[in-house]
Design goal:
The complex is a heterodimer of chains A (1149) and B (98).
Chain A: E1 2-11, E2 14-20, E3 31-35, H1 42-54, E4 72-79, E5 82-89, E6 96-97, H2 106-112, H3 118-124, E7 126-127, H4 131-140, H5 144-150, H6 160-174, H7 183-200, H8 205-259, H9 272-305, H10 311-315, H11 317-358, H12 371-411, H13 422-431, H14 433-459, H15 478-521, H16 523-548, H17 551-573, H18 575-622, H19 634-675, H20 685-744, H21 755-802, H22 811-864, H23 876-907, H24 912-919, H25 924-962, H26 967-1009, H27 1013-1025, E8 1030-1038, E9 1041-1048, E10 1053-1056, H28 1062-1082, E11 1089-1092, H29 1100-1113, E12 1119-1123, H30 1126-1136, E13 1140-1144
Parallel strand pairs in A: 3-12, 3-13, 7-11, 11-12
Antiparallel strand pairs in A: 1-2, 1-4, 4-5, 5-6, 8-9, 9-10
Helix pairs in contact in A: 4-28, 6-26, 7-26, 8-23, 8-25, 9-22, 9-23, 11-21, 11-22, 12-20, 12-21, 13-19, 14-19, 15-18, 15-19, 16-17, 19-20, 21-22, 27-28, 28-29, 29-30
Chain B: H1 22-32, H2 37-52, H3 56-59, H4 66-93
Helix pairs in contact in B: 1-4, 2-4
């Protein structure tokens, strides 16, 4: 898409203004600079273009001249290569039209925009000082189309950061170097506790059985005690119920008796009593209202009948009112003013006569001139006087100029001669001695600072013992330093681990050995040995007996057999402990072997450690580092060594520069001295330069004086000629004015004919004209007053006769009398209407009160119906009394019901007859006595129960303390379970740890392979914009997001966008848009790239670079730049030459 | 609440991503690291940090000898790569069985 022409037909302050960008020329960049000063309408045009594409917003600020309904912006757009005329108007629907007013093809425009909406376009290719920054930040936050393009290397992997973070968290939760509160540390602690418990638990089975029996016995006793206590509690509950219900039964009988007096009274519905009270209040209020209304009606009727009416005066009310309004006022004014106006007219006639005398006229009317003629005459007269005065001045100034010319011509004879000094000035320019001196000082200062930097760098190498002069010969690469440090750290770690392993093995072995010793102290070992010996003895005696078969051998064998059986029986009792003893022996042997193996490993590790230490010491000696130096510090030391070596190279180079600068100064001094014939070495270069500059300055002053004299003489000659022309022109003007006067003053009275004298009579003539006009006005006013007075007199007399009023007074008095009579008649009429209305209102109140009373009586009758079987009720007070009795009856009935329900509930029976049967023959005193005896029994049972609970708890504690039937086995099983669980957790943590390691490694390779095209383009544009001060751009993961880093050439540091200056940051944002534009253009979408003064923060070099880049992209699409800076236009012309077009906006006055 | 049916579908993580999916390429790079001996050495070192901190009774579960331990760590590394890949694909899997 391309903008060929923008029509700001009615938009902002523009009316029918067009910006014509013309047809694109093949092979020529399509770059346009739109220049206009502040408030010329650049931003308005910029916004107008956006409104044309995307519609005028609902609340546009560009309606200050043209109302919303008249706003109109249009233009010619090239869509798919074809020009299309479009117009945008302010309307909710159908706002895109053709110039003829028909609906335009919106789809065609949307297609050309490639679906980009206003917000996206402003963020990408339509920039001002706000959108360039906001959109730039969005792109760097991976938002929007360009953001996705920029970080396409990480596209699709956006969730990976979160996955890795979560996995790292899980690993750290299980195992983290030097952390104490990990799952692994917790499991190890639990294992140790289990181990200790297993050691402690070694309780004989008989003791356990005894404790278990005690526990079971205690449980049984507790159950019996509980049953006894519960039975007593039940008895106590029954007694308490009987004691409570005996008096309640009597209360119930009394209530039934009292209720018999209220038979026939109905239960009142909710609100019945309140309604009766309301009816009573309303009855009183309605009766009061009726009484008041009746009295009021009678009073108003009496007042109405006393009124007196005057229909005669009311018949002429309208005519009288009109006459007494304006006509009476005018008559009264005439009556008062006429004598004063006639006196004023006489005064004016006297003033006119005086003015005519002053102007030497026969009559005042002879001086009556129209205002226009008087103005013409005054103008001619004034111009003539001014021209005459100017002529006199011009003649004087001409004489002065002629005199000055003569004076300057004489002074030229004293001009001094100019010395020949051209060679010396040329030499100074050629040598540029100040620059050489400055370079020498700079070089010396550079050497000094480089020396200090080098010294600091050498200090940073401590404890290095070498000679700083030979630092260049010290050789240690970064990779070697890393390798040595890593190898040494690994070796130390391995050595530490070997030591830890030996310690662990020793601890394990010592533990098993100690337990074994404990077992072997017991009889178990002896029994085992006796069994072995008895078995061997039995076998030997059996062999003897089979050989001899004698009685002695048989007895001896029998005795050995009995002994062996006895020992075997004893041994069976110790079988479990023996098995444990054997197991411990096997464990001890195993741990001893492990200990031995680990000690061997540790020894070989120590040997390896010493050998490596020797090698490292030799290497450190070559580097002039002491043997105590820790090799793990080598990478840091190596980095500082490289810095120091760089500083040394820098120092050497700066020393060479200083020598060269000094030689240059010497050469300049030699050449300058020769030019002024001063022998070498007599003066230094600064003194020689000062001397040469003084000679040169003298010569320049002389030359300037000659030039100034010449210029003054030429100026004086020009001034004299100009004055002569002025005298001539003024003389001609005076002649022309005299001729005009003669024509204009032809018919004036003789006294006014002189051109010179007319000026002095002008004021009197103007005054005369004013007074004549005043006289005419006053005459007309007096005539009107006389007429008003006479008309009023006739009309008031006529009306008085019609109203039967005697005409016996002055017209104004008669008028006042009629006015008062009319006012009285009108007041009586008004009072009649008011009183009639009041009488009607009082009658209505009476009717309303009577209706209310009837309604109240009817409702009282309805409510009394409930009592008709027992009472006769007529008035509302009777009704209230009856309701009060009915309420009492209700209350009694409720109380009786509650007592009955309570008795049945407490005694647990179905009806009152059953309750009476249950309590028959019992009295309260007897029951209270039984209750006291039961209370003592219950207390004893409670105490017994608590004792049994304590016994059971103690038995349980004792049993739990020794473990249980197989507590050691259970603990061992628990330990094995914990170990299995720990192994599973360790495998899981290892899987994640190694998986994370692999992912990080693979991700680094992936990023290198997939550096986005847009990032590469941005990098190139940014390099160009910053003049190479920033080299590389790269993306890097930062938690769950990607960030952009730029490599700064000055200090080789990768910095983030927030660390850049505002100007550089804006250049990066512009580079992102330019690169994005190329990406879109490569995809076939070319939209105009539009910007509104976005280079405010750029210096001239970077502005030129930016314009150059705009020119480049304008070879692919159209670029339009709005600016109010003339230097931007100049730079554009310098950079782009004739390949761009400048459009100027008109200045608004 | 009545659960009528639960459909459970599983597949190896490497098959979830198509060739155009960057995760697929990343997964291939991760698997290629199994043949990268310097990387495997780093992995062994990292594994040793954890195994060395385990209780003595448990260390032998990761190999009685050095050779056995190397084999076990290789296997764990393989499983770890699959584990991370599966977590990466989890977003797609939540869309339901196809």
């Amino acid at each position: 898409m391309r903008l060929r022409r923008l029509d700001l037909t009615r938009f902002g302050h523009f009316t029918d203004f067009s910006l014509d960008f013309g047809v694109r020329e093949e092979g020529r960049p399509d770059l346009h600079i739109v220049f206009g000063p502040n408030e010329a309408g650049k931003t308005t045009a910029f916004e107008g273009y956006l409104d044309l594409l995307f519609g005028i917003p609902g609340r546009s600020k560009y309606n200050f001249l043209h109302e919303y309904e008249n706003m109109r912006v249009g233009g010619a757009l090239e869509l798919d290569g074809n020009p299309v005329e479009l117009v945008r108007i302010k309307r909710n629907k159908g706002d895109l039209i053709t110039p003829s007013g028909d609906p335009a093809n919106l789809a065609q425009l949307s297609h050309a925009l490639d679906g980009i909406d206003r917000e996206q376009y402003c963020a990408m290719f339509s920039l001002d000082d706000e959108t360039i920054e906001a959109g730039g930040e969005d792109i760097l936050a991976s938002q929007g189309n360009l953001g996705e393009l920029l970080f396409s290397a990480a596209a699709g992997l956006s969730d990976l950061g979160a996955v890795l973070e979560a996995a790292r968290g899980e690993v750290d939760q299980f195992h983290k170097a030097r952390a104490r509160k990990t799952e692994l540390a917790e499991a190890k602690r639990k294992l140790q506790e289990l181990h200790a418990q297993i050691r402690e638990l070694d309780v004989p089975a008989s003791a356990f059985r005894r404790l278990k029996d005690e526990r079971d016995s205690a449980a049984k006793l507790l159950s019996q005690a509980k049953q006894a206590r519960d039975a007593l509690l039940e008895q106590q509950a029954h007694l308490e119920a009987a004691v409570e219900c005996l008096p309640l039964l009597q209360t119930l009988k009394d209530g039934d008796k009292e209720l018999s007096a209220y038979i026939g009274y109905p239960s009142l519905p909710d609100g019945a009593e309140k309604e009766a009270q309301d009816l009573k209040s309303r009855h009183v209020e309605a009766a009061t209202r009726l009484r008041h209304a009746t009295i009021q009606k009678e009073k108003e009727e009496q007042a109405r009948d006393a009124l007196i009416l005057d229909p005669v005066i009311e018949n002429i009310a309208d005519e009288l009112t009109v006459l007494l309004d304006a006509a009476k006022s005018r008559a009264q004014t005439a009556e008062e003013d006429l004598p004063k106006r006639e006196t004023e007219l006489d005064g004016l006639a006297a003033e006119l006569s005086t003015l005519a005398n002053e102007l030497e006229l026969d009559r005042p009317d002879d001086g009556a001139l129209s205002e226009t003629r008087l103005a013409r005459l005054a103008s001619i007269c004034g111009d003539h006087a001014e021209a005459t005065s100017k002529l006199a001045d011009a003649q004087k100034e001409k004489a002065d100029a002629d005199e000055k010319v003569k004076s300057l011509e004489q002074s030229n004879y004293d001009q001094p001669s100019m010395p020949l000094i051209g060679d010396l000035e040329a030499l100074l320019k050629d040598l540029a001695p100040e620059e050489r001196l400055s370079q020498m000082k700079t070089a010396e200062a550079n050497v000094s600072s480089a020396e200090q930097a080098f010294e600091r760098a050498v200090e940073g190498l401590a404890p290095w013992q070498g000679d700083p002069k030979d630092i260049g010969r010290v050789s240690l690469s970064g990779s070697e330093a890393e390798r040595l440090a890593r190898d040494w750290a690994d070796l130390r770690e391995a050595r530490q681990m070997a030591r830890r392993e030996v310690e662990d093995a020793q601890r394990d072995y010592d533990g098993v050995e100690a337990r074994l010793n404990e077992f072997e102290k017991d009889d178990i070992a002896a029994v085992d040995d006796d069994v072995k010996a008895a078995r061997e003895e039995r076998d030997v005696l059996w062999e003897n007996h089979t050989r001899s078969l004698s009685e002695d051998s048989a007895k001896a064998f029998h005795a050995a057999l009995l002994r062996d059986d006895a020992l075997q029986e004893a041994r069976l009792g110790f079988a479990e402990r023996l098995a444990r003893l054997r197991e411990l022996r096997v464990d001890a042997a195993s741990f001893k072997a492990t200990l031995s193996s680990r000690e061997n490993s540790r020894s070989s590790m120590e040997e390896r450690y010493k050998a490596e230490r020797r090698k490292l010491s030799e290497r450190l000696a070559v580097l002039d580092l002491p043997e105590s130096f820790d090799p793990r510090d080598l990478p840091g030391w190596q980095a500082r060594l490289v810095t120091a070596q760089d500083r040394k190279i820098d120092l050497d180079r700066k020393r060479d520069d200083a020598v060269e600068a000094s030689r240059s100064v010497q050469e300049a001094a030699s050449r300058l001295g020769a030019a002024m014939s001063i022998p070498d070495g007599t003066l230094g270069l600064p003194e020689l330069v000062r001397k040469a500059r003084a000679i040169s300055a003298d010569a320049a002053a002389t030359r300037a004086k000659i030039e100034a004299d010449k210029k003054r003489r030429e100026d004086a000659e020009k001034e004299a000629a100009r004055r002569a022309d002025e005298v001539k022109r003024l003389s001609e003007q005076i002649g022309d004015l005299q001729a005009s006067w003669d024509r204009e003053a032809e018919d004036l009275p003789t006294a006014l004919l002189s051109l010179g004298g007319f000026r002095w009579k002008l004021s009197a003539l103007q005054k005369l004209g004013v007074k004549l006009a005043e006289r005419e006005k006053l005459k007309r006013r007096i005539e009107a007053m006389e007429k008003d007075r006479d008309v009023f007199k006739d009309e008031i007399a006529t009306l008085a006769e019609r109203a039967d009023e005697p005409v016996d007074a002055a017209p104004l008095v008669l008028g006042e009398r009629l006015r008062r009579r009319l006012e009285r008649a009108q007041k009586s009429e008004t009072d009649l209407e008011t009183l009639s209305a009041k009488v009607s209102a009082a009658a209505a109140d009476i009717r309303s009160a009577q209706e209310d009373l009837a309604a109240i009586d009817e409702r009282v009758h309805e409510l009394a119906g409930a009592f008709e079987s027992i009472l006769s009720i007529t008035f509302v007070d009777d009704l209230i009394e009856a309701q009060s009795q009915a309420a009492k009856a209700d209350q009694l009935r409720n109380e009786v019901r509650e007592v009955r329900e309570r008795i049945l509930k407490r005694l647990g029976v179905a009806d009152i007859d059953a309750a009476e049967a249950l309590l028959a023959g019992k009295d309260v005193l007897e029951l209270e006595g039984r209750k006291a005896g039961l209370h003592a029994d219950l207390k004893t049972a409670e105490a017994d129960h608590e004792v049994k609970v304590g016994d059971l708890r103690s038995a349980n504690d004792a049993l739990e303390k020794v473990g249980g039937d197989n507590a050691p086995a259970q603990l061992e099983e628990k330990r094995q379970t914990l170990l299995l669980d720990l192994e599973e957790q360790a495998r899981r943590a290892l899987r994640l740890k190694l998986g994370i390691l692999a992912t990080e490694q693979a991700l680094a390779v992936y990023r290198d392979d997939h550096r986005s095209k847009m990032l590469a383009d941005t990098e190139r544009a940014f390099q160009t914009l910053t003049g190479g001060r920033y080299q590389d751009l790269k993306t890097q993961a930062d938690g769950q997001k990607e960030i952009l880093l730029a490599l700064r050439k000055r200090d080789s540091r990768s910095i983030t966008v927030s660390e850049m200056s505002k100007g550089t940051r804006f250049q990066l944002y512009l580079a992102l848009r330019l690169a994005g534009y190329r990406q879109y253009a490569a995809g076939g979408t070319t939209l105009p790239f539009v910007a509104d003064d976005i280079m405010e923060t750029f210096d001239n070099k970077r502005t030129a670079a930016a314009l150059c880049l705009l020119s480049e992209i304008s070879e692919q699409g159209q670029a339009i730049y709005f600016t109010h800076h003339e230097h931007v236009v100049d730079l554009a012309e310098e950079v782009c030459g004739g390949s761009m077009t400048v459009h100027e906006l008109p200045i608004i006055n | 609440v009545w659960i009528d049916k639960i459909v459970h579908s599983q597949e190896p993580p490497s098959q979830s991503a198509t060739g155009a999916d960057p995760r697929s390429e990343l997964g291939a790079l991760m698997k290629g690291l199994m043949e990268d001996e310097p990387f495997v050495s780093r992995a062994l070192g990292a594994a040793d940090d954890v195994i060395g901190d385990l209780p003595p009774d448990l260390r032998s579960a990761f190999g009685e000898t050095e050779g056995e331990q190397v084999e076990q760590v290789r296997q764990i590394l393989r499983e770890g790569i699959d584990d991370i890949m599966a977590r990466m694909m989890a977003g797609d899997a939540e869309e339901g069985p196809s």
